[in-house]
Write a structure and sequence with these properties.
This protein has a single domain (5-104), classed as Jelly Rolls (Sandwich). It contains no helices and 11 strands. It has strands spanning 5-6, 11-15, 18-22, 30-36, 41-45, 52-58, 60-67, 70-77, 81-84, 89-94, 98-104.
Length: 119
């Protein structure tokens, strides 16, 4: 049972001017940028309807993952890109000041105002 999947960006390019990383060009309804200070823990929830992908812009985060009794922890640093499927509880412990891009296949807030976030 896979609790997360490493993802490759759609396109990467670099030259003397700098670099461009195209994470995706379709498939996500909601994109957030999350800035978190070292020592903070976030998450502790899961989504029933949406998968969530994260790209670590800078920093370091250890993600605890759990589903159906299976548990795993993975540490991700700058440049890591990973996807968490629905029904996987994810808790993030930020070991350094960190900036993440969080992308949801379906928007977390539903049209009726309820949210696809469960403890």
């Amino acid at each position: 049972m896979e609790l997360y999947e490493r993802v490759r960006p759609d396109f990467e390019f670099s030259d003397t001017r700098g670099a461009l990383v195209q994470l995706v060009h379709e498939g996500y309804e909601q994109v957030n940028v999350l800035t978190t200070r070292a020592g903070v823990t976030r998450g502790g929830h899961y989504h029933k309807e949406t998968a969530e992908a994260f790209f670590v812009v800078d920093g370091r985060v250890t993600v605890g993952l759990e589903r159906a009794g299976a548990r795993q922890a993975e540490t991700f640093e700058r440049g890591a890109f990973f996807r968490i499927p629905p029904h996987v509880v994810h808790t993030m412990a930020f070991e350094a000041d960190t900036v993440l891009v969080a992308m949801y296949e379906k928007a977390v807030e539903r049209p009726d105002g309820s949210k696809d976030i469960f403890s």
